[in-house]
């Protein structure tokens, strides 16, 4: 194997100032490195075989890395005072000492070391099986899945052996699945039958195609194996049923999360429009304010702490209250400056706020550019949770939780605090409330600010699932009004129910009609719905004729 | 003065109308009578720009008829305008014939999308008069169905506005789709012939301008005539207090549906004349913000007045073409601020400014000072 070692000259070995993050040292790793060095420097077949056997027992990352490097000629041997040093190339012009994992410089005289064909083949097998023994259970699952699907006979004994050793339920399942899939091709008749049945019982989606091909073969075979055909059919049916269930469940989840988005964007409107009677066409721009606040807070964190710092991940938590406060202040300003003059003229409030929305949109464009700005997702919100096979992304889950929170908090504020009492009194009859001593001007301002703040919060959350741009609010404004009108103007619980309902219908229709047609259908359904219930789901009851 | 066939209120109105008529007749003549280097020469480009303004004015009148006189704020007037435009655009697309990029008798976008023959609903549009007719009845039909649905269940005020916006939004999404057979987001463009003439000829531009101008005058006359009639009285009564009108035994639903349909048909005609002059029609014409643009024209010009929408449409579009050229970035801010000022301080728009100033001067003279009341009663006033 190793032939050129004796010719190498002594070269100075410089230890670099920094140590690669990938070569974090621990005991098992050290052992693997030692074995690898032995392998490279082995003088005869017996020593090589001994090293290979040892390698098979270990499951370290460095092995895979090394084998990959060896295959492309990136392993070198440097003879140095005391003994040969094995170097591995880890990047453009960067080398590390294989034994210690520390960065090292290489002399011009170092020789490339190459593995023989047979050794390469042996190593390949070890690497393939490497991940099966990885301490990381996710890697083990992925490796079992991959090797099972190759249906390669060679891996079957190893897989079987390891499957018996797995203790974790999830991992065990993956291994069993892999064994069964492999047995579909490599097993004898009994094993084949039991594998088909087992895969059916496991509801293995990955195995569906393999069972299908077994089923096809069994049907075309001259000698019909009826029990095999039957169990194939059962297994396929079981898998398909589970698939349908999962599809339904994930549609439900998507509907719930779409509904939560609608709820968040529409809830502020349900307060300003439903409770106060102000048609705020600039509601969408308050959503955009929230989005841009997140962007600014993010930039602040980047500028002051850097992207890699631990603090950076918390920028989003800071930007939520910031988004609320900034949009609430903007809302208070708008109410004081404009809306308070228009309470008796709802159509004019629609027009005036539309003008405001135009100005604000253009202001965003001038300040932040016409293109969308990028907002990153903090680590604790990325990824997803696997709920019995339904993938729920964390940001959508948090959206749902947050929507519930908003509904509950708003409800409590309105029903338990004196401000809430004042709000309800003012909304029922502005003049009467103010003549009974309710400071209606202040109540109006606070209510409008609260509604706008909610819009800002919605925008902050939308920054995680959509784009932040000057016209981001426009996307939601029509939907928001629909939610409020369908729910029944003035009824917050109605708005919550209608947003969930619209979200569900929207997501339910999308697989059938596609996103755009689904949306159009929903809009037409709403128009038809209002024929039968012009006041929405929960119409406000009143004896006034012109309500 | 009370002649039913001359339904004009004041001498001023007659003079303004006469000025408008003279402008409509003379303006295109300045294109042909004066040589290109003369100061009085109007280029073909200017002709088509002003022709478009005239179409906008017709569109604004149609909204004013709904909003100013009936109290129905429709945010989807752009939909009817675009539908009319699409109807006539279909004729223009077919007239391209085999001069398109692909050299087939099918419109280019259909070849591009893999159609082998013309869809059935396109076939009648070889006939220009069918297209003009469709530019009226298609928007009319949409307005009829939607109006029936909305007014029967007594949807009114802001709910009507929001619903019309939703309808427009849904329609725009539909027209953005490629498989809707109307060219997707590119819409129709590259027109070649109209009524057998090359669309780029100066004489065609003049004819289109005249057509737009006469449409404007005709629509103005029609609206004025209706306002003078008993019908117009009921219409304004509905605006001021719908319930009282209903209690008096009028079916306000039927009145409103009729008004809505007429208004949509007028908007459709305006769209049909707009498209050959603009040279393009695409779904962005029916995007909800366009509907609000029209509302701005009417509000700035003065809603509930006969000349207001014309002035508003022309004024705002002149301002737009000026500011987008000189301050392209601030255009929306300027428009927003102008509109805000109008909504807050000029409830009757530019047309009502003179009366407002007079009232203000009088109130300064009178002792004690009286406040200026907005002259328009507003629905839902509590």
UniProtKB/TrEMBL annotation, chain A:
Belongs to the binding-protein-dependent transport system permease family. LivHM subfamily. It is a multi-pass membrane protein. Residues 1-27 form the signal peptide. Keywords: Amino-acid transport, Cell membrane, Membrane, Signal, Transmembrane, Transmembrane helix, Transport. The chain crosses the membrane at residues 252-274, 286-306, 312-334, 394-414, 435-461, 481-505, 512-532. One of its GO terms (cellular component) is plasma membrane. GO terms for biological process: amino acid transport. Pfam families: BPD_transp_2. InterPro entries: ABC_transp_permease (IPR001851), ABC_UrtB_bac (IPR017779), BCAA_transport_permease (IPR052157). The keyword ATP-binding does not apply. It is found in: Cell membrane. GO terms for molecular function: transmembrane transporter activity. This is Urea ABC transporter permease subunit UrtB. The gene is urtB. The lineage of its organism: Bacteria, Pseudomonadati, Verrucomicrobiota, Verrucomicrobiia, Verrucomicrobiales. NCBIfam families: urea_trans_UrtB (TIGR03409).
TrEMBL record, chain B:
Keywords: Cell membrane, Membrane, Transmembrane, Transmembrane helix. InterPro entries: ABC_transp_permease, ABC_transptr_urea_perm_UrtC, LivM-like. It is found in: Cell membrane. One of its GO terms (molecular function) is branched-chain amino acid transmembrane transporter activity. GO terms for cellular component: plasma membrane. Pfam families: BPD_transp_2. This is Urea ABC transporter permease subunit UrtC. It comes from Persicirhabdus sediminis. The gene is urtC.
């Amino acid at each position: 194997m190793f032939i050129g070692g004796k010719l190498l000259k002594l070269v100075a070995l410089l230890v670099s100032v920094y140590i690669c993050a990938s070569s974090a040292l621990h005991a098992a790793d050290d052992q693997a490195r030692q074995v690898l060095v032995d392998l490279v420097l082995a003088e005869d077949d017996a020593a090589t075989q001994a090293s290979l056997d040892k390698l098979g027992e270990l499951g370290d990352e460095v092995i895979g890395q090394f084998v990959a490097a060896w295959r492309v000629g990136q392993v070198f041997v440097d003879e140095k005072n005391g003994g040969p040093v094995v170097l591995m190339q880890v990047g453009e012009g960067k080398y590390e000492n294989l034994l210690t994992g520390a960065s090292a410089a290489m002399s011009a005289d170092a020789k490339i070391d190459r593995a023989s064909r047979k050794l390469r083949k042996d190593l390949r097998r070890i690497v393939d099986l490497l991940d099966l023994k990885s301490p990381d259970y996710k890697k083990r699952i992925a490796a079992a899945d991959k090797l099972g699907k190759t249906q390669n006979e060679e891996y079957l004994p190893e897989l079987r052996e390891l499957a018996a050793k797995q203790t974790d339920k999830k991992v065990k399942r993956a291994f069993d699945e892999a064994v069964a899939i492999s047995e579909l091709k490599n097993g004898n008749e009994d094993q084949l039958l039991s594998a088909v049945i087992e895969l059916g019982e496991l509801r293995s989606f990955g195995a569906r195609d393999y069972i299908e091909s077994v089923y096809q073969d069994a049907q075309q075979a001259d000698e019909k194996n009826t029990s095999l055909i039957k169990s194939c059919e059962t297994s396929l049916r079981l898998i398909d049923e589970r698939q349908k269930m999962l599809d339904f469940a994930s549609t439900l989840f998507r509907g719930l999360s779409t509904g939560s988005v609608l709820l968040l964007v529409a809830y502020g409107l349900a307060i300003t429009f439903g409770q106060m009677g102000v048609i705020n066409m600039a509601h969408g721009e308050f959503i955009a304010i929230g989005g841009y606040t997140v962007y600014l807070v993010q930039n602040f964190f980047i500028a002051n702490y850097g992207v890699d710092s631990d603090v950076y991940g918390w920028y989003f938590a800071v930007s939520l209250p910031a988004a609320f406060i900034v949009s609430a202040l903007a809302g208070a300003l708008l109410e004081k400056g404009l809306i308070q003059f228009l309470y008796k003229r709802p159509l004019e409030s629609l027009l005036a706020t539309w003008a405001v929305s135009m100005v604000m949109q253009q202001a965003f464009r001038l300040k932040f550019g016409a293109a969308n700005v990028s907002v990153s997702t903090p680590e604790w919100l990325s990824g997803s949770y696997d709920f019995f096979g339904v993938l729920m992304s964390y940001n959508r889950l948090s959206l749902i939780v947050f929507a519930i929170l908003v509904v509950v908090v708003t409800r409590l504020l309105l029903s338990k605090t004196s401000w809430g009492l004042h709000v309800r009194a003012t909304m029922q009859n502005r003049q009467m409330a103010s003549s009974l001593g309710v400071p209606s001007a202040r109540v109006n301002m606070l209510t409008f600010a609260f509604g706008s703040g909610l819009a800002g919060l919605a925008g902050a959350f939308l920054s995680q699932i959509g784009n932040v741009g000057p016209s981001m609010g426009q996307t939601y404004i029509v939907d928001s009004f629909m939610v409020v009108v369908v729910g029944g103007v003035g009824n917050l619980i109605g708005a919550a129910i209608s947003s969930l309902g619209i979200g569900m219908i929207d997501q339910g229709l999308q697989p059938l009609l596609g996103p755009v047609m689904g949306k159009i259908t929903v809009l037409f359904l709403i128009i038809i719905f209002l024929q039968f219930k012009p006041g929405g789901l929960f119409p406000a009851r009143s004896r006034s004729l012109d309500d | 003065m009370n002649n039913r066939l001359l339904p004009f209120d004041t001498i001023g109105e007659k003079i303004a109308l006469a000025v408008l008529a003279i402008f409509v007749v003379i303006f295109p003549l300045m294109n042909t009578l004066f040589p290109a280097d003369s100061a009085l020469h109007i280029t073909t480009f200017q002709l088509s720009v002003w022709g478009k303004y005239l179409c906008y004015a017709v569109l604004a009148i149609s909204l004013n008829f709904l909003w100013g006189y009936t109290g129905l704020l429709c945010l989807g007037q752009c939909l009817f305008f675009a539908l009319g435009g699409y109807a006539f655009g279909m004729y223009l697309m077919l007239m391209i014939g085999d001069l398109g990029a692909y050299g087939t008798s099918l419109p280019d976008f259909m070849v591009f999308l893999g159609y082998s023959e013309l869809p059935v609903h396109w076939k009648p549009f070889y006939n220009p008069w069918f297209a003009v007719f469709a530019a009226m009845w298609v928007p009319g039909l949409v307005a009829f169905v939607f109006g029936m649905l909305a007014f029967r269940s007594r949807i009114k005020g802001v709910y009507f506005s929001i619903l019309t916006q939703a309808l427009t939004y849904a329609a725009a999404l539909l027209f953005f789709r490629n498989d809707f057979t109307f060219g997707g987001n590119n819409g129709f463009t590259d027109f070649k012939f109209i009524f057998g003439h090359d669309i780029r000829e100066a004489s065609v531009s003049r004819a289109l301008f005249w057509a737009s101008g006469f449409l404007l005058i005709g629509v103005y006359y029609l609206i004025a005539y209706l306002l003078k009639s008993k019908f117009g009285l009921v219409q304004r009564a509905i605006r001021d207090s719908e319930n009282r009108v209903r209690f008096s035994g009028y079916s306000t639903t039927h009145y409103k549906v009729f008004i809505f349909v007429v208004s949509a048909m007028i908007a459709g005609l305006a769209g049909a004349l707009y498209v050959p002059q603009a040279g393009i029609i695409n779904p962005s014409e029916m995007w909800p913000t366009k509907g609000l643009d029209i509302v701005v024209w009417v509000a700035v010009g003065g809603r509930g007045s006969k000349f207001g929408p014309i002035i508003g449409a022309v004024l705002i579009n002149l301002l737009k073409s000026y500011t987008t050229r000189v301050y392209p970035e601030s255009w929306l801010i300027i428009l927003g601020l102008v509109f805000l000022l109008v909504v807050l301080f000029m409830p009757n728009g530019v047309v009502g400014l003179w009366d407002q100033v007079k009232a203000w001067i009088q109130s300064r003279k009178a002792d004690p000072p009286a406040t200026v009341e907005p002259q328009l009663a507003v629905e839902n006033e509590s």
